[in-house]
Design goal:
About 40% of the residues lie in helices and about 15% in strands. It has a three-stranded antiparallel sheet with strand order 1-2-3. By secondary structure, it is α+β, with helices and mostly antiparallel strands. Strand 2 and strand 3 form a beta hairpin.
Length: about 200
């Protein structure tokens, strides 16, 4: 019953593995893997992994700020016209800035209560779909979206034990095609596999 016997909550976030993605024949962009590991009751899943691009971080910050006007949100790394996605230093500097942004966000209890943050970190929904989900315009809830995304991707060993108990129910739910939660274009490529030891380039 003493405080030292209580389990201390933690949230670990890593922004890593920048990859160049082709948008069309003329345009490319870089996205980053966001890995979450936590024991916090605030999170639906205790481990998750998604890929997000810079403009989605910009959207997240704008939405969080509009819902928490009294909080001074941390800044994102500045968007400079001199950013070169072929320059490893530029890419890593942005990656570090995005990680620091998320680390600060996740320390604020009020921001942690925003469903958009959880959808951003634990699903591959687009900003438009996240807004629709949060405003109740979808057939699925925030928790449904997070569980569905997890079922479409490789599960983490830590979560396997939790899932074994209700595996049959979870599997039958995850096979439903009418939920509107099919993988988005870039969710398929994020299996959170340990990528080959390649230098960030």
């Amino acid at each position: 019953m003493t405080p030292k016997h209580e389990k201390q909550e933690f949230v670990t976030v890593l922004v890593r593995d920048p990859r160049t993605q082709k948008e069309d024949s003329w345009h490319s962009y870089i996205d980053y893997e966001i890995f979450i590991h936590t024991n916090s009751m605030c999170f639906t899943r205790k481990t998750s992994c998604v890929r997000r691009r810079f403009r989605e971080f910009v959207w997240l910050r704008q939405r969080l700020q509009s819902n928490a006007v009294l909080i001074q949100l941390p800044e994102l790394p500045s968007k400079t016209p001199f950013f070169n996605m072929n320059n490893p230093h530029h890419v890593d500097h942005r990656r570090q800035g995005l990680q620091e942004f998320l680390e600060k966000i996740l320390q604020d209890a009020l921001l942690l209560s925003d469903s958009r943050l959880h959808l951003f970190l634990q699903t591959q929904l687009s900003p438009e779909d996240m807004e629709a989900c949060v405003s109740g315009q979808t057939k699925y809830s925030v928790a449904d979206a997070i569980h569905k995304f997890a079922s479409l991707n490789r599960r983490f060993p830590i979560e396997d034990e939790e899932r074994k108990k209700g595996k049959n129910d979870a599997d039958s739910d995850s096979e439903s095609s009418s939920s509107g939660l099919g993988p988005s274009d870039d969710s398929i490529s994020c299996g959170c596999k340990a990528s080959p030891a390649s230098e960030e380039s």
